[in-house]
Amino acid sequence: MEPFASWPLAPLVALAVPLTLALAGAAAPRRAELASGIALGLSLLFCLGASVGAEPQRTSSALGVRVDAVTCVMLLLVASLGAVIVRFSRTYLDRDPGLARYLRWLLLTLGAVTTLVLTNNLLVVAAAWTAASLTLHQLLTFFADRDAALVAAHKKFLVSRLADVALAGSLWLVHASVGSFDIDRITAWAAAHPGLSPSMQVAAALLVLAVALRSAQLPFHGWITQVMEAPTPVSALLHAGVVNVGGFVLIRLAPWVSQAQPARVLLVAVGVLTAAAGALVMTTRVSVKVALAWSTCAQMGFMLVQCGLGLWPLALLHLVAHSLYKAHAFLSAGSAVDHWKVEALNPPPRPASPHAVAGAAALAVALAFAPRALGAAPRSPADVAASLLLGLSLAPLLAVRAPGGALGLAAVALRVAGVVALYFGWHALAARVAPTPYAPASALCWWLAGAGLAALFALKSALALRPRGALARALHPWLFAGLFLDELFTRLTFRVWPPRLPQPQPSTARASRAALAPAAIEVQS
């Protein structure tokens, strides 16, 4: 059967998705649910046709639309989440006078993201990325009378404009070297020039900087933990969709990024720092939404580490899983009180025992070292290192609330075996979709990733075993304050470009001044 990717109508079906969302947002926001449903139906038709008779790694492009497996996965993900968020928003903001305005900007944001996913032109990627940032800004400032929301949105605006500058510099260098913004030509040029020129190395580093800025990496992370004054579905859209775009862009440009070893070292260094700090800071939060925001910082950092190590299938699998999890977590955050009431009626869980922690670590590492199938060839050092990182990342999660003794070790063993087996199954599926590894990561990348995640595992285990020990008491003030990184960034940037806030009434002047302080905003957690 002739593959859908070569059918002339395939690009038209794909282009109809963002066009439907954009037209509905501009003309008829009251029909937002219908527009999002049509977009989801077109996405399903596109993905179904593209998968019939086409090879997993087949790539086709026409009318500026890139047709491959990664496009299908991402388009279906964005369209599905968009339909759910639009439906949730209609109920969440029912009878709100600004509902039509809200739906207009929501549909335009979804249209910009789908355009970014479909295009085969790097310049269009940059333009759609910027458009999604600007339309999302209108959603973050939906409640214009909340100073905290305006301050947080202003911080995101500043970080996004810095990312635009870095991305513009990268595009200028790419066009000067390759002579085109076409992604196929850029990847083909990178494959034909394994030793990238200095200008392309710098362009890759600027691209990584732009991704790090938009992915809320330290120390430019403060805005994502402080945008909780926006409606809950906006938080779901931000954490489940928009913030993940950086990982998708890296996956799309994997043949080029794989050849830029300095950029990959930068990815791993920034990602490890953010993943470790975010995971530790998250443990001090009592607000559900703020804890989820710190979790997003950590997850985005871990995704950058995966990209830096060249684990592209794992990065794609992580992106999809994180999007689905965060969408559910934020949309169900309102029921956290009900869950707390149910848990309050049950006896408190037993804390993790040293035997359970040690057993989980040992079993996870041992199973991760096992070949993917019995009788497989010996694994390369990169595969062994990746398996070690996998084991260390799984161990603390599976050891939580495990009983001590032989029964606890047996329970941990079964859970670790099941999760690792499930991981390898999903990994095999993702390997058929994401790009295959190109150039191996340098030894420095592996050392940075291994040392950072091992230190995180050791610290979290020590804090879990002795939550009131000397180490916990010493680290808690720093972790609760987010290592004081956001305060420094806020002071420096607000001196250059302070936010514009509505003039407060005399009775509320003191409260408005307090809202300007980053520390006051963070106390909400």
Write the layout of secondary structure elements.
Blueprint: H1 10-27, H2 32-51, E1 60-62, E2 65-67, H3 69-92, H4 99-118, H5 122-140, H6 147-178, H7 183-192, H8 198-214, H9 232-240, H10 245-252, H11 254-257, H12 261-282, H13 288-308, H14 312-331, H15 336-344, H16 354-369, H17 381-398, H18 405-431, H19 443-465, H20 470-480, H21 485-496, H22 509-515, H23 518-522
Describe this structure in words.
By secondary structure, the protein is mainly α. It has helices at 10-27, 32-51, 69-92, 99-118, 122-140, 147-178, 183-192, 198-214, 232-240, 245-252, 254-257, 261-282, 288-308, 312-331, 336-344, 354-369, 381-398, 405-431, 443-465, 470-480, 485-496, 509-515, 518-522, and strands at 60-62, 65-67. A two-stranded antiparallel ribbon has the order 1-2. Helix 12 runs antiparallel to helix 13 (288-308) and helix 16 (354-369) runs antiparallel to helix 17. The N and C termini lie far apart (56 Å). 49% of the residues are buried.
